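TASK: fixed-backbone design
INPUT:
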C-alpha cells in the first residue's frame, strides 16, 4: 500500500435538513467498505426542515480511529447548501482540500433583517469566486438546477456525488452500484444521470463556478397607478410555495408557477395593499408603494 494511502481520507458532508446529507454520507461509507477500507461515519441531524443544519463526517483508510475530522483536516468538504459550506470551510485542508458546493441558497426566514427595497439578507455575503480564490481546489455547481432539469430536484445530492467522485479514487461503476442501493428503485435512472452530469461537470475543469451561482433570484414587477407606483418583488429562494398569499390576495392576482413559486400573474389588478407581504411567513414578498410625484423626481 502506498504511503499516501496510509493516511485516512476525510470527507465532510454538510447541508440542511431534508437535502440528503445522510444519503451522500452513507453512499460514500458503503463504497469505502466495499473497497476494504476501515470506515468511521458520524452525523449530527438538525431540524428536518429548512434552517436546520445537518453534517456528517466520513473517514476511511487502512485504519481509522477517530470518527470525527479535525479542523483543517478534511480532504473534501461537500456542501448541499452554500452557506452551510462556508460555515464548515475551515475544516478543509488549506493545502490540498477540495471544496464542492451546490450554489443553492436556502435562506432561513430569520435571515431577513431589513425589508427596505434592495436590502440585504443576513446571509453569507461571500461570492463563489472569492471562495475559489481561497481554496486549493473547488467546484460551485448548480446541482439543484441540474437535477431539476433531469426531472427530480432530489437528485441534486447524486449530482454532487458525481462531482465528489472526481476527488476520490473509486471507479465510476462502483459509485453507481452503491447509489442504486440507496435511492428509490423508480429514481435510479435519474440518479445515475445526475451522478454522470455532476461528474462530467467537475471533470471539465478545476475551480469551476456555475454561471448562475451569483445570488438570490428576485422577480420585480412595477405597476404604474394614478397616484402610486407599486413594485412587487418576490424572492424565489425564500418562497416555499405555501399558497397563503395566493389564497388571501384580495384581488386574486397571484399564483404559484410550475416550480411552486409565487408570481404576480395579473399585475393590472394589484392594488399594492401589501396583504401578501404581511402574510407571507417567509418574507418572500416585498411591496413598495411610491407616490407618483416622488417617483418622478
Ligand atoms: S399587494 Fe395586495 S393586491 Fe397586490 S399582490 Fe399583494 S395582496 Fe395582492
Ligand atoms: S406566502 Fe410567501 S412563501 Fe407562501 S407562496 Fe406566497 S410568497 Fe411563497
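OUTPUT:
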Amino acid at each position: 500500500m502506498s504511503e499516501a494511502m496510509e493516511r485516512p481520507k476525510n470527507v465532510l458532508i454538510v447541508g440542511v435538513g431534508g437535502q440528503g446529507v445522510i444519503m451522500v454520507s452513507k453512499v460514500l461509507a458503503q463504497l469505502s467498505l466495499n473497497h476494504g477500507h476501515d470506515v468511521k461515519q458520524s452525523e449530527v441531524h438538525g431540524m428536518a426542515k429548512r434552517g436546520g443544519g445537518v453534517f456528517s463526517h466520513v473517514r476511511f483508510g487502512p485504519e481509522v480511529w477517530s470518527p470525527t475530522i479535525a479542523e483543517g483536516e478534511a480532504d473534501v468538504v461537500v456542501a448541499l447548501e452554500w452557506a452551510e459550506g462556508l460555515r464548515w470551510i475551515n475544516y478543509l485542508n488549506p493545502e490540498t482540500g477540495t471544496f464542492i458546493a451546490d450554489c443553492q441558497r436556502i435562506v432561513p426566514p430569520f435571515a431577513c433583517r431589513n425589508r427596505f427595497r434592495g436590502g440585504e439578507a443576513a446571509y453569507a455575503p461571500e461570492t463563489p469566486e472569492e471562495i475559489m480564490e481561497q481554496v486549493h481546489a473547488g467546484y460551485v455547481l448548480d446541482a439543484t438546477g441540474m437535477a431539476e432539469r433531469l426531472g427530480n430536484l432530489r437528485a441534486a445530492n447524486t449530482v454532487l456525488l458525481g462531482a465528489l467522485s472526481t476527488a476520490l479514487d473509486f471507479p465510476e461503476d462502483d459509485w453507481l452500484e452503491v447509489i442504486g442501493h440507496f435511492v428509490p428503485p423508480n429514481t435510479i435512472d435519474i440518479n445515475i444521470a445526475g451522478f454522470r452530469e455532476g461528474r462530467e461537470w467537475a471533470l471539465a475543469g478545476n475551480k469551476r463556478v456555475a454561471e448562475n451561482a451569483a445570488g438570490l433570484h428576485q422577480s420585480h414587477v412595477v405597476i404604474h397607478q394614478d397616484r402610486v407606483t407599486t413594485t412587487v418583488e418576490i424572492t424565489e429562494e425564500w418562497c416555499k410555495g405555501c399558497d397563503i398569499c395566493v389564497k388571501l390576495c384580495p384581488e386574486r392576482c397571484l399564483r404559484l408557477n410550475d416550480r411552486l413559486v409565487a408570481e404576480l400573474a395579473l399585475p393590472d389588478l394589484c392594488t399594492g395593499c401589501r396583504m401578501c407581504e404581511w402574510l407571507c411567513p417567509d418574507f418572500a414578498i416585498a411591496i413598495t408603494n411610491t407616490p407618483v410625484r416622488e417617483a418622478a423626481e
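COMMENT: The chain has two domains: 3-209, 218-296.
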